[in-house]
UniProtKB/TrEMBL annotation:
Pfam families: LRR_6 (PF13516). InterPro entries: Leu-rich_rpt, LRR_dom_sf, RanGap. GO terms for biological process: nucleocytoplasmic transport. GO terms for molecular function: GTPase activator activity; small GTPase binding. Residues 513-545 are annotated as: Disordered. Signal peptide: none annotated. The lineage of its organism: Eukaryota, Fungi, Fungi incertae sedis, Mucoromycota, Glomeromycotina. This is F-box domain-containing protein. GO terms for cellular component: cytosol; nucleus; perinuclear region of cytoplasm.
Amino acid sequence: MFKKVSSSLGLPRTQSLNSALTEKKKKNKFNKVKVEGGEPIALDRYLTNEGHRLVASYLKITQIQNHIQKGSLLKITEKELDDLLKSYQRNFYNSNNNVNEGAVVNLYETLNYENLGFSLQECKMLAKLLKSDKFIKIKTLKLSKNNLSKSSLKVLVNALYKNTTLKTLDLSSNLFTDSEAKKIAKLLKKNNSIKEINLSFNRIGSEGAKHLSKALKENQTIERLSIESNRLNSQGGQYIAEMLKVNNTINYIHLGSNNLQLTGVEKIADALKFNKSLVSLSLDINNISSEGVEFLSEALKINKNLTHLYIPRNNIGDNGLKYLSNALLSNDTITYLDLEFNNIGNQDNIEGIKLLGNILENHNVPRAINLTHNNIGNEGCAALFSGFHKNNTLESIILSHCNIGLEGTKVISDALKNNEGLQNLSLFKNNDMGADGHLELAQALEKNTSLKGVQLDYNFAEWEKVGNSIHQSLTRNHFLQQEKYNTACRILKVARIMLNVNVKQQLPTFTSISTSTSLSPSTSTSTSTSTSTSTSTSTSISTSPSSLLNLINNNNDNNNGSLAFTKLPFEIQEQILFALDTNQVLTPLQIISIIKWSLTKSTLGKSMEEFLTETLRAYYPLTSDIKLWPTEASDYYSAERF
């Protein structure tokens, strides 16, 4: 049919493509390549029949894969999808029918099909992908806002019964009722791979909660469960509570906006006394009131696993805060506490805030507190921060929309001058602070060495100078903390090498140390630590080596297999203690803690976080984003809460 011509490579090819391009005498810019210093060369000239077929096949496969990734499943036919799956299968099994693990397809690890109006036909094609889990690895599937029909859900659920790769399934905002919840419950009984399921913003009632709870009593894989904004009511809350008494795998559960009321919350609080796995509990907008918080507080005196308690918009008032504060006196695990919009400080009542201030002064919990939209005021600030200079574990406090004025800002600023732990402070939307309040904070940050994030309005003229000062202080603190961590790790490594028993045997013995020896000028100096912001701090070490060594040896437990530090030559002791801290960013007591850590065998294998937390009293990751609320999916994350 086609005239044969010889190509420049001496291979036969058809003239079909070339003639098709020249018949209409139009140039196709994609069919030629420009060679430097020469004329454009037609790419078609070098393609054989086989080449044409391979290129067309490659382009077709790429197009189909793109449609799958984008969720445009109606743009491909079932035959095209079947052919694609067969090609994946052929690559997965080699000629000897053995599995080729390297041929597993990872293109579809995350399929985001949100708000696409998925039809039954599209769900059937998606089901084929889910059933091909031997050679296609789908880990995350997002199907929110698709208003999936009962038939569509049934097709997907059937496909997921035996799927072994999917870990995260998002079915939020699909108008599911109890009927659909029953199908999902059946899936949770059979599937052994899904770890996170999101059923938020549906219409699941107490009967649906009953089916889900029954399934989760048997399920051993679900770790994160979100049923936020459904219609569980108090009866549904009781079903969830019964499940939590039995289930030992769920770590995070979101039950917000379900009208659980006092009865449902009471049952959930009772379940916390038995549950051993739950780490995060979200109960926002459930009309809990102070009575519900009293039940939760009694549970917190017993439960030692929960770290995140999220109860905003529940009208707990000052009485509720008092119950929580008293519970924290005997609980050392709650680290994240969200009390946003809870009518705290109503009518200038500061009794609850006083108790919370006492917690911050004398206890190690929590690490983060959100008090947004509560009437803390100036007097509340005075009560909350009265002993804050003693706290070194609170990592973040959010005081946005808290009616804080200049006097309250001064109290916070004075506390920051002596505090060594706070990393993030939000004073957003406190309009009465004014320019003077911002200036107070800027001056406080010149002395503070820990804070790395501040949220302010800067709603005054000539704010730029104050803003630049605050930014410089925060940048300095960031690099200073980084240097502290690096220095601590460097001292630990060298100390462990020097104190290694094999090294020790090769060193000369040294039996006496003069207690009158003082630090030489090279080690007892005042050093300026300069950062990229050209801000410097001055620190002086005057403690004598003998007093340091006595502190170390008095606390050294040789029965645990540690080595006697004083048996090393004094020059090595001095090197370990001081010379490695070239800019003197650590205190003598911190260095002592590091040496004690290095002398103890039981600390081997501990993580860097554990080491820095115990030796420097606190460890804060060097990141600008501190995620406090792990129950929330990123799609629903509210920046206002941080």
